Known about the structure:
By secondary structure, chain A is an alpha+beta fold. Helices cover 34% and strands 16% of the residues of chain A. In chain A, β3 and β4 (56-59) form a beta hairpin. Chain B is globular. In chain B, the strands form seven sheets. Chain B has a seven-stranded mixed β-sheet with strand order 3-5-1-12-9-10-11, sandwiched between helices. In chain B, strands 7-15-14-13-8 form a five-stranded mixed β-sheet, sandwiched between helices. The chains are: A alpha+beta, B alpha+beta.
Amino acid sequence: MSVEINLKVNGEAVSATVEPRTLLVDFLRRHLQLTGTHVGCDTSQCGACVIHFNGASAKSCTLLAAQADGAEITTVEGLAADGNLHPMQEAFREHHGLQCGFCTPGMLMSALDLVQRDADPDEATVRHWLEGNICRCTGYQNIVTSIQAGARAMAKEGS
Amino acid sequence: MSEQGIGASVRRTEDQRFLTGRATYTDDINRPGQKYAYILRSPLPHARIKSLDVSAAQAAPGVVAVFTGADMVADGVGGLPCGWLVHSEDGSPMVEPPHMPLVTDRVRHVGDQVAVVIADSYFAARDAAELIEPDYEELDSVASLGAALADGAPLVWDEAPGNRSFHWGLGDKAATEAAFSSAHHVARLELVNQRLVANAMEPRCYLAEYEPASQQYTLYTTSQNPHVIRLLMGAYVLAIPEHKLRVVAPDVGGGFGSKIYHYAEEAIVTWASRKLSLPVKWTAERTESFVSDAQGRDHVSHAELALDKDGQFLGLRVSTQANLGAYLSTFGSCVPTYLYGTLMAGVYRTPAIYVDVQGVFSNTVPVDAYRGAGRPEASYLLERLVDHAARDLGMDPVELRQRNLIPADAFPYQTPVALEYDNGNYQATLAAALEQADYAGFEARREAAKARGMLRGIGVSCYIEGCGIAPSQVAGALGARAGLFEVGTVRVNPTGSVTVLTGSHSHGQGHETTLAQLVVEALGVPLESVEVVHGDTAQIPFGMGTYGSRSLAVGGVALQHALNKVVDKSRKIAAHLLEAAADDVEFKDGNFVVAGTDRSLGFGDVALAAYVPHNYPHEELEPGLEETAFYDPKNFTFPAGCHICEVEIDPETGVTQVVDYTVVDDFGRVINPMIVEGQVHGGLAQGIGQALLERCVYDEEGQLITGSYVDYCMPRADDLPSFNVSTEKTLCTHNILGVKGCGEAGTIGSPPTVINAVINALSPLGVTDMAMPATPERVWQAIRAATRH
């Protein structure tokens, strides 16, 4: 048994036939080779798989690919335009907001959703927002700094 | 200091690929015709397999093959080796049971590997595995140290009576007894160092590909040390000659020790790829990681400190039980012995020390190194005990430490537990931390918190660690079965760019930047002209990998030796071209200059001349400009420092918040301060995690209770504060960079600091002890118990 889905991923129309039980994250990684979105757990806790689903952050391990029929998906691969880092990516680089990099795509996608809701989040707000994203390397301090700096840079650029 | 050389906070060159989703982790790699492996694991802690019928699984749709332990044994596959032979006090070698990749007769922990299904898709393999129904005869099991060491306890291994692998000792027992008999006071403490799970964010993953025509194997693996895996798996398990086995550890998403070891699944997929002549991939689900990644800590200790009337330490006596799990993992035997007992002097001049450790089997996942590996356990014990002694004596715990610190002029300092500290200044790190944390002003903050209804406490600890995990000769004499040097190659390309090949492996530490900074400093080339290659046995001459904070202290120093060779050779080439004596040629800022003249030559010109040797000193030098150094250190390195933590506890809920955290570390010379700070932050998060949140729990039989992130409490962003991190500097005296290593320090110093702070906060109520993790429930119970009477 299989289902046909039509969706937009990083602005491009995608059509595919998948097993109904295929998770969205596996669809992105295996069918579309968008391997920037990661799988770090199997209980929707770690946030390594966070993408944007119709503009809002979502854990792609908790969605079926079939649920994305008709949706617009953005993954970490869709952030850098014309080879230039997005201001949030640049802030992570500048403030050493990543070490092994495995949680980073999810952190970026979560951070960008936060900034949509709060253009200048304070430290406590950022820390609370990251409840669903686990990082084992950084101790979070530089991630928090990066997100605050990224938010300010985005405000400045009006992006 | 150049803008990109030693001492500069250069932004990481590797970040671009991680930030854009273009990194290559093992699970991102796929090979044509690849099949998927699913491992059937034991649901029971201990059982005999009476029968194992795999025929239904074999016939399931999409299944290529099903293999069991019998198939591997029939094929001559060997067991997973332990890398360190420990001897008991009586001279007998440790009990070292076999560790087959797939079990043959008995399962010994939940998660033990029973069979592997290989199929066209992951789903097909997993579905088919459900059709295997092993007939288990359940056996009695033991999970905790207490249960395993009880009289008449069920045996994990018939050949290990009392479930003991070894009973090891270190130090002068008689001198220690004498110290205690003359003591004015003896402080005593029972301590549990709870079991932890490393939980690198990237689950383990292996992809093996066998080429029948060339008989070449390639294994892509989430490993911290690909050459070690090649050695162990090739030589001990699968009998593959090294020239036919390429091991690649590409981008690896964190390790923290848990990706050092040679794991069963690596051997299973590699062997299966040969059996099937197909690429085979296995990726752990997080739930599998919890029952198959080697775990950390799990000690129960009794510790005693003898003091004279002035608070001088006279002797230390430690007796520890260390849970090894069901099998000896690669370094399972050395972590609770040589990486633990040897650190018992800490930063203090305790003249007599004796430590004994029982290594104990249980029906649990094997225990091995987790960030710090033995040294956090030593630090926790010692720094809790010092605070406890101060409380006994009514002394300020800082003053008691100050009275006993090894003086700054006493180096090199021989401890009573085998190590010789080369250099340090423990007074300086302590003094700097006290000032930065405003230790003197604490009582006012306690009062202010009290006015808000909060209990505020302060905790201090001074840590030291032995890093580098070398020299080979010493390690070998102590039982290591491998060398512990490191390798660096500097390949200067004809146009003057530089490729570095390092045996160290980066899984988050930023080696591609830090090591490139050494090249910038040595050769004067821009950072953009340097590429650091790691993690591929086909490209790199050899390597022992990354653990024990050794990448810079051993791998970086190896690279520096290779760089020095390049400079020496380049100088000779330049001298020839400049028609001067080599001794008269100076190398500065990337240019060779004849001293006292304006005649000079750029490094790039010399590189080109080495590869286009038309005008070249052929009698003296070979063409080309590539140098390799194997570096085996003379001693361990000894990073040390001071942690100060302030907590506030809500007596109504028992919730502890870390409100202030100060660290002053001495890492020797620092290459990239930004990266070093990041390493300390991460280490602190894991240490604070152990102190307040994390605990791996088995029930009495050995069923894992904390088998997911829902149950195992990982530190999250809002559990932690921002940290105040800085460094003092004494140089390592026995390596040419003066570096010591920084990767584990945060994890080593923080657990006792946090718990000392918690106890300090609760001490006005009369609380004198607190177990890790200091969960709200435990703290609340302690408050209730203390205030009830």
